[in-house]
Amino acid sequence: xxxxLIKHLNAGDRHAFDRLYGLYAGRIMSFCMKYLNSAxxxxxxxxxxxxxxxxxxNKLKNTTSVKPFLYTAARNRIINxxxxxxxxxxxxxxxxxxxxxxxxxxxxxxxxxxxxxxIVMDCINSLPKTQMAVVTLSRLYNMxxxxxxxxxxxxxxxxxxxxxxxxxxxxxxxxxxxxxxSVIIFAFLKVFIDxxxx
Amino acid sequence: MSMDELFNKLxxxxxxPDDLRRLKSHINxxxxxxxxxxxxxxxxxxxxxxxxxxxxxxxxxxxxxxTDQLKARQIRRYRIALTAASILLPIFIIASAYxxxxxxxxxxxxxxxxxxxxxxxxxxxxxLPDGTAVTLNxxxxxxxxxxxxxxxxxxxxxxxxxxxxxxxxADHPFEILAPEMTVEVLGTKFNIVAGDSGHPSSLTLxxxxxxxxxxxxxxxxxxxxxxxxxxxxxxxxFSVDTAAIDGSTQWMAKELIFDDASPESIVxxxxxxxGVKLNPAIKNKINENFSGTLPGGSLSETLETLSYxxxxxxxxxxxx
Lengths: 198, 320
Prior knowledge:
The structure holds 2 protein chains of 2 kinds. Chain A has helices at 2-10, 14-35, 39-55, 67-86, 89-100, 113-125, 129-140, 145-152, 156-174, 182-193.
């Protein structure tokens, strides 16, 4: 039965594609939620994976089921998310801060990483271009001023100015958010803005 | 503690710094196939899913497939992701959001400030309310008031590189304010590179007439077609030479054509076209001459096509 659907899919039949979606979307979604805590990420993966199925409709000739294709595609995307997360300097900071404040930040009152990341990255990304680049390199990648100056082809004084303006703006934007979770955000502010390494 | 437990903690953000170190080194030294063992599927996958959500996702999939079939260019998404520190370029592409006005006309009559920016390696064309067409190369920014033809003051702010095709209006000169120079235009076509201080600025004129003024010194120069004015950093004077416009607008080509090109020249063309440095892992795989045409619209398109021929991995295309 599925083999017939696949034959039709090979020929570019959108209805066959719809039927395959109906068969597997729910399963892929559950699979993603099993390994990711974020519905947002899981939805993106389901979307990507089925679009990939459509884009590769010609290459799936002589297959009995699209299940391996879909699961492999989803698995690879989940792994990529894991890779990005464990290598993210911001995640490293988050883990360190959470560990240090384990007593105070216990249970459900602690801010989840996804939300934390959104808040911080939104703030950084809304800075003017140069300040954004300088703040990211200095605070997330621990890069010294002269190296930033070299990479961005700016004078060191320009870098220092951009850094101090950028951090000042960040402090102003992040402080009101203390209401979400004072412990984590405050500790982050100390580490990130004042650069007192944990 | 087993790897399975660590992966579970990663999912729930319950890792300790030591856990993270262990997990990170394991993940970084394993391939996707090796890590796949921790993500097993079982027949229990299903049931608790929300039909509304699945329908919503399907709608997005359908509209994406439809737009892909209608347009050649894809719509990009805003994504927050930080990757390993050795890859610098993605910070600028991934960590910022830009507005896109690709090929659409800007509605006249509003008094808002419009700005169009391109990320590195991206090309975009904008039509201004007076009919002027501007094709922006990567990493460029154009700003103007949306009512600028109503107010009859045609002035834009610009930095980066672009090809301007300015609509004729002898009564209302078109003015470009760039960091190091101002350009006054009367119906003409030209390519302009307007760098920040410390980088050269230049304008190559194809047709019409332009007058340039250096911001630092008020030095003026007028150009005729086929001429190029260059302002080098540090000097406040323009130097004028002749230059074929074709040379300066190579970047606008939507296709990269190769005729028995050597690996070195293939790499050079791609690096120049997109303003990037290719990952040595990719360069090493390009080991034979190539004849053919590659799509030149975006780096990922070009590399994807090339990867079918040379068999390299396109996940980390560039290095700093």
